[in-house]
Amino acid sequence: MTEVYLNVHVVIFGLREESLQVFLAPGDSNAWEIPGAFVQAAESLEEAAGRAIAVQLDRQHIYLEQLYTYGDPGRDPSKRLVSVVYFALVSAAFHGNLPEGRMRWFPVDALPSLACDHASIIAYALRRLRYKLEYSAAGFQLLPDEFTLSELQHTYEIILGEKLDKRNFRRRILQAGIIEATPHRRSGEGRPARLYRYRPDAVAEVKARRLFP
Amino acid sequence: MTEVYLNVHVVIFGLREESLQVFLAPGDSNAWEIPGAFVQAAESLEEAAGRAIAVQLDRQHIYLEQLYTYGDPGRDPSKRLVSVVYFALVSAAFHGNLPEGRMRWFPVDALPSLACDHASIIAYALRRLRYKLEYSAAGFQLLPDEFTLSELQHTYEIILGEKLDKRNFRRRILQAGIIEATPHRRSGEGRPARLYRYRPDAVAEVKARRLFP
DNA sequence: AGAATAGTGTCTCTCAGACATTATTTG
DNA sequence: CAAATAATGTCTGAGAGACACTATTCT
Predict the structure, then answer these.
(1) How far apart are CA B70 and CA B76, in angstroms?
(2) DSSP assignments along chain A, one per residue
(3) Are B71 and A156 an interchain contact pair (Cβ–Cβ within 8 Å)?
(4) CA B172 – C1' D9 distance (Å)?
(5) What's this model's pTM, rounded to 2 decimal places?
(6) Which of A35, A169, B148, B205 is the most buried (most CB within 10 A)?
(7) Do β-strands A62-70 and B62-70 pair in parallel, antiparallel, or remain unpaired?
(8) Which among B5, B40, B69 is the top mutation candidate for probing chain A, defined by the most A β-carbons within 10 Å of its own β-carbon?
(9) Structure confidence by residue, pLDDT tens digits, A83-131
């Protein structure tokens, strides 16, 4: 029997220049690739994911979640390749720690030509990210440690692609109990805004009303 | 580098004798195992899942969904093993097709001693199954092709572990549009009940009201 | 003073959840 | 006709969604 190769890929999402972007690595020919790494015998899948991003996994600034495992024969023409795919939300504060090399950010609505089945993997990751945002308060994972409610709302609007009502957004996100006010404020143009932060003790996921109770 | 072994496991759920049960294979020593198979070079992960159950995958009667990929080093003491785990809902009509051998059904609340990390995998699969039922109409996957609303409600009650209101259940499941009435009825003790069936053209998942619209 | 952004409250209408009676069949 | 199960409708309360004005700071 021929060997089955196992690697890990990480779809890295970040917020840059008012848009949702993905961090990609240059591949062979002129297609880009989702950063990946082969799984070593002694490391966990998440450690392999860290090697794929080429950073130490700092869970404070990188949210990592397993997405799906792709394994169709023929997805890679050269070998039988099974890929465990993660997606990562990288806090703006952490962008500077990502590798300088030849990797680059691309807005999700202006992706370059992609290797293998990576375009459909990114499309799926994006679908899951939007879904996750609708049912949880994960948006702050893309922001600095402290942020204003307007920034958070703006993040949701960018990712979901629609305008949200300010009063309803504030009411819901606050009564979800995921974030809390800090004593700090951010000055700039206009009235200074109160800064909020994630409550690490909060339950990560707020359950939506279920369908068949 | 030592080799990384890749296999597929399937947590098989079925409804038997008024309880939710899992179909397990005998392992070494006297622990039981979630049925599994090593991934061959030329087959897809789902084909490997079919081999694990030792049946041809009949999607009409077996609902199969990828659950999670487990890969911590040390989860198997003898080798580095990465397992892609699926869960399956097997229609009552199909139970007879499952392999006769030494495999056996166990109620989920009376599991035997399990190998490796299989107990926690089943616990996770069960959590996901309950969650799935709350937000979708997947319960009929465990029933025969045609079923009464009382049977369907009963299925939900067994899996969710709580009594549901009959009128509310009917109203919600019908207006979800996942099932449709057939002209048939089932006679027995008491008034005969109308039989329903799944609508294959229906959208599989009904979206719950989202949290941040 | 004006421009810019932050911050706040109410009303309506939909839908989830609780609840009891009638209808149809079999023995 | 008694026993068993199927089938059906209404009311109430909570919360989602729409909506406009005041507050604070900077230049």
Answers:
(1) 11
(2) ----EEEEEEEEEEEETTEEEEEEEE-STT-EE--EEEPPTTS-HHHHHHHHHTS---TTTEEEEEEEEE--TTSSSSS-EEEEEEEEEE-GGGGGGS--SS-EEEETTS---BSTTHHHHHHHHHHHHHHHHHHS-GGGGGS-SEEEHHHHHHHHHHHHTS---HHHHHHHHHHTTSEEEEEEEE-SSSS-EEEEEE-TTS-S-PPPPPS--
(3) no
(4) 14
(5) 0.93
(6) A35
(7) unpaired
(8) B69
(9) 999 999 999 889 999 998 899 999 999 999 999 999 999 999 999 999 8
How far is B32 from B30, CA to CA, in rounded Å? 7
A16 vs chain B: nearest CA distance in angstroms? Answer: 22
pLDDT of B186 strictly over 80: yes
* Type of residue found at B161: G
Contact, B183 vs B197, CB < 8 A?
no
Q: What does DSSP say about strands A193-198 and B62-70: parallel, antiparallel, or unpaired?
A: unpaired
Chain B, residues 23-52, CB within 8 A of chain A, namely 39-45
What digits encode the pLDDT tens for the residues A17-37? Answer: 889 999 999 998 889 999 999
Among B23, B8, B202, smallest CA distance to A6 is for B8
